[in-house]
Amino acid sequence: MQKATPAAIAVLTVIAGGTALAPAALAADETGGNSLHATLSPVPTNKVTGSGTATVHLQGHEATITIKTQGLLADAPHAQHFHIGAKGQCPPASAAKKHNGSLSMNTTDGLPFYGKIGASLTTTGDTSASHAALAVDRFPKGASYTYHRTLTVDEETATSLRSDNAVVVVHGIDYNGNGKYDNNLGPSDLDATLPSEATNPALCGPLKTAPAGAVAGGMGGTQDGDTMALTAAGGLLVAAGGVMYLRRRGIRQN
Amino acid sequence: MNGFRPRGRRSVHTATAIAFTTTALALLAEVALSPSAPPAPPESVLAGRSDPSREPPQGSAQPLPASRPEHIDIPEVGLSAKIVPVGTTADGAIAMPKDADRAGWYNGSPTPGEYGNTLVVGHLDSANGPAAFYRLGALRKGDRISLTRQDGTRVGFTVTRMAVHPKGDFPSRSVYAPTSQPQLTLITCADWDDSQQRYRANLVVTGHL
């Protein structure tokens, strides 16, 4: 063992030296822009059972958006926007108020959480916050739809998107379940010529940076010992072989 | 070897060879008896293939309000760990918890019980030994995963899919995709590379309510 020990130490030193050459982290799947994800959930108290997802890829001021919904009011237009500049959150049930005697959430009730409109996600034409916000003839229609469009957003909206502060809100609810927008909740807080049901928030989802690439979920502490021992064992067997060779050569020389 | 008498240089050589061999055998025995190798995921997922996925249930249940996960328990494989929130690294990957005994909930993902894809990561091992997700590879489809939220509610997921993906060709788009129903995605390392002294892949476990 006295001779084996230095050999083992030498082998282990070599292995330890190798361990020090830790691999650099793998580069992320970089496309140069920002990828954002949102899960669209029913806005509490508005009697919505739908859901959906949104993905946004932002390159400079160009936002490529995909929104998928299900379970919304059929055959009705659903206004949809990026909301920006508040908490970057969806409103909790506690933000709801009584409207026309019914506890519900109108667009104004949610403003402290998702903020003002940053862009109108229309199917064609203008996408600005001010002029297109309620262009009901240029929003997707139906219970389930897939919306896909690349549009230019302003600096404030781009900044909000990059800082995980933007929220996707899809509007249009059927609070009393009669299959159409009506005035059971009174007129809209945004445009008194429309029913509140047509503009109340239905689905909401905060846009958050999508992770990229694999995780660095291990340091090898349960592998290193084995590796070192196996390599050391291998090295020792080679050494043993070498010594046996020396011995045999010694025999021949004798 | 008949008539061999242990003396002189030959005997020194012989003794040395025996010593080397004995030490090597001792090391090999230690490796063989060592309990430290992490449990392997099912063979069918090791070659980059994944188990055929069960259709995620299209539940109509209303989602829970947000409340971040604080603990993960998988009794069937003896996994139990605290969960801390984590962000992303400079290169965009989900950051790992500093304490390798804790799992990390990606704070840009929904909390468990909300609609969406809840992302929880964990170390397989630290530099010294097993870590939070050391036992993850022992999971099998149908096993139950329990997450305890800050508000005290527990949300149970059933393992529906296990897959091993190489780090250099990781399907970020599908693994991190938002989902309209509650989904749990657990990620840790897999596939140790002896020569590079690093893990080559990630194990991805998917669960549904």
UniProtKB/TrEMBL annotation, chain A:
What superkingdom does the record give? Bacteria
Q: Which UniProt keywords apply?
A: Membrane, Signal, Transmembrane, Transmembrane helix
| Signal sequence, start to end | 1-27
| Membrane-crossing segments per the record | 228-246
UniProt name for this protein: CHRD domain-containing protein
The protein's organism comes out as Streptomyces candidus
From the broadest rank down, the organism's phylogenetic lineage runs:
Bacteria, Bacillati, Actinomycetota, Actinomycetes, Kitasatosporales
UniProtKB/TrEMBL annotation, chain B:
Q: Which Gene3D superfamilies match?
A: Sortase
Q: Where is the signal peptide?
A: 1-26
Ordered alphabetically, the record's keywords are: Hydrolase, Signal
SUPFAM superfamilies, per database record: Sortase (SSF63817)
**Chain segments carrying region Disordered:** 34-70
What domain of life does the UniProt record list for this protein's source?
Answer: Bacteria
Catalytic residues of the enzyme? 123, 189
What InterPro entries does this protein map onto? Sortase (IPR005754), Sortase_dom-sf (IPR023365), Sortase_F (IPR042001)
Q: Does the keyword DNA-binding apply?
A: no
CDD domains, alphabetically? Sortase_F
Q: Name one GO molecular function term.
A: hydrolase activity
Protein name (record): LPXTG-site transpeptidase (Sortase) family protein
